[in-house]
Amino acid sequence: MCGFYNRFSGKDISLMTQHPNWCAAMKKADRYLARLAPHASSLMKGGAAHQIGAICYRTNETGAVEVLLITTRDSGRWTIPKGWPIKNLKPHQAAEREAWEEAGVAGKAKKRALGYFTYLKTLGDGQTTPSVVEVFRRKVDELHLEFPERGEREVAWLSPVEAARRVQEPELKGLLMRMLKQSLR
């Protein structure tokens, strides 16, 4: 097992490292952060695009929390439902809309953001731009089989640990693990 300690409290937070591939995932995170490095100046000057996302969650029949991941339409990588802010909608409402359009999720999002993650958004012209995603928790009340982007993406319900393993963005991995930590309370 890969050791991992909170540098401020000195406490072992190995809950996050119990997955057998966690160390490999952290090495991938380093490579991912290296891709963001050329955009650091733009990020620091507020030059990043702003997006809204939702971590959709439910409790399965055993009482364990599961989170929803979807694939992107272009590259097929795993992520959460997300998109651009929507005029006349508050951020948590935009997160609700994105989860509905991309995964058929019905339910209310928390009004307060869970956190943020950064990634490189590929635009229609092939250019990349840093994007900061404001993430809201959304409890799933109902899942519809018909929704606007049905058939364009894969959808998977996973444990927070498995979801964190599948996504590329280190900050999103942390937000998914926070869902696990909160479910253990």
Automatic annotation (TrEMBL):
Gene Ontology terms describing biological process: adenosine 5'-(hexahydrogen pentaphosphate) catabolic process; diadenosine hexaphosphate catabolic process; diadenosine pentaphosphate catabolic process; diphosphoinositol polyphosphate metabolic process
Matching InterPro entries: DDP-like_NUDIX, NUDIX_hydrolase-like_dom_sf, NUDIX_hydrolase_dom
Cofactor(s) needed by this chain: Mg(2+)
Highest taxon in the source lineage: Bacteria
Pfam family, one: NUDIX
Keyword terms of this UniProt record: Hydrolase, Magnesium, Metal-binding
Sections of the chain in a coiled coil: none
Sample GO molecular function, one term: metal ion binding
Family matches, as SUPFAM superfamilies: Nudix (SSF55811)
Domain Nudix hydrolase: 49-180
UniProt GO cellular component terms: cytoplasm
Cross-referenced PROSITE patterns: NUDIX (PS51462)
Name of the protein described by the UniProt record: NUDIX domain-containing protein
Organism: Rhizobium meliloti (Ensifer meliloti)
Highest classification ranks of the organism: Bacteria, Pseudomonadati, Pseudomonadota, Alphaproteobacteria, Hyphomicrobiales
